[in-house]
Amino acid sequence: MTTDATLFWDEVHAARPPGDPKPNARLVEAVSDLPPGDALDLGCGNGGDARWLAGRGWTVTATDISAVAVNRLAGPRITAVRHDLRVSLPAGEFDLVTAHYLQTPFELDRSTVLRTAAHALRPGGRLLVVDHGSTAPWSWNQDPDAHFPGPAEIAADLALDPAQWAVERADSPTRLATGPDGQTAQVVDHVLLIRRTA
């Protein structure tokens, strides 16, 4: 495996056909009833979430470390920009920040990234963090000793002031997932939804 994060993720996305990606199930669950506004999609990958949000009236800033991923993502109401989140995040204020499976084999201070993103929310805006809670057979991470922090642990690491942010959801549901070659497996998602109250 390459030791360069940009090259690694460029290769991952180049190996995937562009296609018509589907949105993540937890995004659809959490956001369907929200009024559209400005959204930031951290680690947009194949663009399924950004396209779904834009289709529902959101104005989306989608970002990824991979130029391959960003260059594939175009469409009405979507601005796709390349950022290495270790260094920078897109500027702006948002009503929704989503981070789905923002996990990587490379060093990344996720808590700082997510905390910074939470501060970019307008009052009433929400931060949705969805993480792997188990290893799928097709995952790049097959370490049997891998630690998957739960939503309460993630929230604690963010250290957001409870006078300004409220946890609306913190749970670990299971779902049937389909891998890139069509295989299926039961997987666990860690879901954290935080609303900025002030």
UniProtKB/TrEMBL annotation:
GO biological process: methylation
GO terms, molecular function: methyltransferase activity
Keyword Transcription regulation: no
Pfam families: Methyltransf_23
Organism: Amycolatopsis dendrobii
Entry keyword annotation includes Manganese: no
Species classification: Bacteria, Bacillati, Actinomycetota, Actinomycetes, Pseudonocardiales
InterPro entries assigned to the protein according to its UniProt record, in alphabetical order: Methyltransf_Superfamily, SAM-dependent_MTases_sf
UniProt entry keywords in alphabetical sequence: Methyltransferase, Transferase
UniProt name for this protein: Class I SAM-dependent methyltransferase
CDD domains associated with the record: AdoMet_MTases
Organism superkingdom: Bacteria
